[in-house]
Amino acid sequence: MKFKYSVLFVLSLFLTIGLVLQAEAGTSKRTGTNAADELLIPVGARGTALGGANLSTVIGTEAIFYNPAGLGMMDGAAEVLFSHQQYLADIGVNYAALGARTGIGNFGISLKSLSFGDIPVTTEEAPEGTGATFSPNFMTVGLSFARSMTDRITAGINLKLINESIMSTNANAIAFDLGVQYRTGAGVNIGVSMKNIGSSIKYSGQNLEKLVGVPGAEPTAADRRMAIPAEKAELPSVFEIGLSYDYVPVEKVNMSFMGNFRNHNFQNDEVLAGAEFDYAKTVFLRGSYSYQLNSEEDIQGGLSYIYGPAFGFGLAYPLTATTKVCFDYAYRMAEYFDANQLFTMTLTF
C-alpha cells in the first residue's frame, strides 16, 4: 500500500509539472525582468561539471541545490560540503551545506553568499566616484528535509530565505524547492524538481529616499523627504525533468549518461546532457553540454546564451572505515567572460 501511494504521488507531480510547463513556459521576452538571479547560479563542482544534468542521480548535500530528494540518499550519517566558485565578472560564490541522518529522515542546512568586492560610489554630482566604496551582500539560507518513501523513491523539500542588501537598501523573499527521484533498479533513474517557488521580492530602504522641494511651497520651506516606490519582481522559477542510465562495462568501472529538460519562467528553456566516468568510486571524470532552445542573437551576432561545455574531475579518499573526503573541480566555459571555475570539498562521516 505504501508503494502504491508513493507511485501515485510521483505521477501526480509529473502531471502537475506538465501542466505548469504549458502555462508558464519561458520566453526571451521576459529575460532580465525577474529578481534574485543568484538563485540560478550552480554550486558544487560535480553538478556544474555535469551541466546540472544530474537531477536524477545527485545525492548528499550537493543535492540540496539540484534536487532536494537526493539528500535522502546521503552515504554516511553526516556530510559537510564547502564550495567556492569564481563566477562572471570576478564575482565570488561561496557555498556550504551540512546534512545529517535521523530516524525520521535526513535534514540539511545550506548557505550561499556572493562576494562582489568593493564598488565605487557614484552620484549625480560625482559620476566618476566620490572616493567611497560599497559591497552588496546577497545571501540565501536553506533548510532541507528528505526521506526515502520506498527502497526506490525519495522525496525532498527546501525552504529558502533570500536576502539582498545594497548599501542601506534591502529586499527579502521566501521560496520552496520540491524534488523526487525514482530508481528503477535496472540502471535507469528519473528525477523531477520544482525550484524557487515563492513570494515576490521588493526593495526598500533609505537609498530609495530623496529630498525634494514641494511645488508651490514658500521659498524658505524645507525640502520634504520622499520615498521612491520600487516595483515587486518575481523569482526565477525552474521546473526540471531528468533521466539517467548507469552502465558497468567491467568490474569497478561505472559510466553514467544523463539528460535534463529545464523549463524557465523568465527565459528560454534548456536541454542539458552530461556523462560521468568513475573507477572504483575513487577517480571521476565528467563532462557536459547545455543548449538553450530558441536562443536569439545578441547585438554582435552571436547567441545570447553564453554557456556551453563544462568539464571536471573528482578524487575520493577514505580517511577511516567510516570517513571519506572528496575533492572536485569544474570548469565551465562562458562566452565573453572568463570561464567559471569551482572547487569543492566534501567530508562524509
In short:
The chain is mainly β and 349 residues long. Helices cover 9% and strands 48% of the residues.
Task: Describe the structure in your own words.
The chain is built from three helices and 19 strands. The chain has a single domain (2-348), classed as Porin (Beta Barrel), CATH 2.40.160. The model has no long low-confidence stretch (mean pLDDT 88). Helix content is 9%, strand content 48%. The protein is mainly beta and 349 residues long.
Secondary structure elements and pairings:
Elements: H1 2-23, H2 45-49, H3 63-66, E1 78-86, E2 92-101, E3 106-115, E4 119-120, E5 133-134, E6 137-148, E7 153-166, E8 169-183, E9 188-198, E10 204-205, E11 209-212, E12 224-227, E13 238-247, E14 253-264, E15 270-279, E16 283-292, E17 307-318, E18 324-334, E19 340-348
Antiparallel strand pairs: 1-2, 1-19, 2-3, 3-6, 4-5, 6-7, 7-8, 8-9, 8-10, 9-13, 11-12, 13-14, 14-15, 15-16, 16-17, 17-18, 18-19
β-strand percent reads: over 45%
What is the approximate shape?
elongated
Helical residues, percent:
under 10%
Radius of gyration: 23 Å
Name of the CATH architecture: Beta Barrel
In CATH terms, what is the fold-level topology?
A: Porin
Strand order of the largest sheet: 1-2-3-6-7-8-9-13-14-15-16-17-18-19
Count of runs of 4 or more consecutive helical residues: 3
- Whole-number average pLDDT? 88
Low-confidence stretches: none
H/E element order: HHHEEEEEEEEEEEEEEEEEEE
Distance linking N and C termini: 34 Å
The number of distinct β-strands equals 19
SSE class: mainly beta
Largest sheet: 14 strands, antiparallel, barrel
What is the CATH C-level name?
Answer: Mainly Beta
Total domain count: 1
